[in-house]
Amino acid sequence: MSIQQKKSDYIGSLNQLMTTSCILAGFAFSGLISLPGIEKEMFSKIVHYFSGDLSLGFYASFYTLFFSTICFLSTIMIILVYKVHNFTIPFAKLRNIHLIANLTFSIAISALMMSVISFGIPNYMGICLAIFLGVVVGGSFVWENLLPKQHQKRIQQVEDEQKKEQESAAQSTNEQQEQPSEDTPQDKSDSSESESHTEGSNL
Where does the chain cross the membrane (predicted)? Predict the structure, then answer.
């Protein structure tokens, strides 16, 4: 793969990342604004159901949501700085920008999940579960998108699938070409029989 193709792939990935970050940043910011306006009576029922702590669940959810919003906005700003000039930068710098933007996005996704879980389960078990799932989600995102070995492995898998499809298509075309050739002797015999029949009738 040439450098120009790699550069176009990185630019396409950054554009998709910025679009997703804009959507999730709006979601996180709207939640950040509406979170302080929640009725304490309604939230206290949830806390009582889980035998949790009101202040613990609220503060954990609020600050992780705030941190998630900051990370989403940071991802957008990192990409926008270079998108203004249509990414007219060297390939090495573009690759570093792609790495940093994906890291901040993975942190933002992890923090957003932690905020949702800590708000839904406002006790120590919920916070531990939020931290665990946040680390798992962020780590899996980094593993699938930033490790070169995984990227090369996916490319190899796609190439193998394309080869299999081409082989199956070639095999099907060969079978279709062989069928008329097999039917040709029968067609000839049928035509000879019809000719003999017509000659007999003429006699």
Answer: 21-38, 58-84, 96-118, 124-143
